[in-house]
Predict the structure.
Amino acid sequence: QLQLQESGPGLVKPSETLSLTCAVSGGSFTSPVHYWGWIRQPPGKGLEWIASIYYTGSTLYSPSLKSRVTLSVDTSRSQFSLKLNSVTAADTAVYYCARDWRGSFDSWGQGTLVSVSS
Amino acid sequence: DIQMTQSPSSLSASVGDRVTITCQASQDISKFLNWYQQKPGKAPKLLIYDASNLETGVPSRFSGGGSGTDFTFTISSLQPEDIATYYCQSYDNLPDRAFGQGTKVEIK
């Protein structure tokens, strides 16, 4: 059973960088048919795709967030990470990591709430 | 960027009713369209991929259809456990993944 688990600070100050990591277990992190993605959901609002990364490090970015997002991957630990810089209150959200199969998110982490506040 | 317009934003129906949600893409996305169910406090769950393919283990009362720019999601007989918010999501070769605004389904 594939499991994904997000981790990282729950509070980030405005203008700083949000950093999250997703640990993958119970499945192949280096699967040739899967990317690994990040999706966020502001409180009470809808879902927004952020970016996805292949185990080789190849990345796909949302056009609206591309300038502020960096993804990385650590295959030795079966983990991938998100960095979002210059955060504002609008970046407050539950951040989910998920397995991205041809653009379909078929397995999700439980999500982690990140608040942006001074 | 692809924009997905989902309607209605909310609906209320009785147990056993047929429920239909629509999703319109701002450009032709062929059949690259997924549907998710999200219950309060939980992560979304993929129900349907490629517009009409049921994910393994998903009850057959859920179905999807459409292609190009216009898509539908149907619950043939609404059950109490179907209370949730449903999202459409497109994907393509550009690449981009865009979600609709969501439809909250409640029991009347």
DSSP finds no helices and eleven strands in chain B. Chain B touches chain A through 25 residues (CB under 8 Å). The first strand of chain B starts at residue 4 and ends at 7. Residues 67 and 91 of chain B are 13 Å apart (CA to CA).
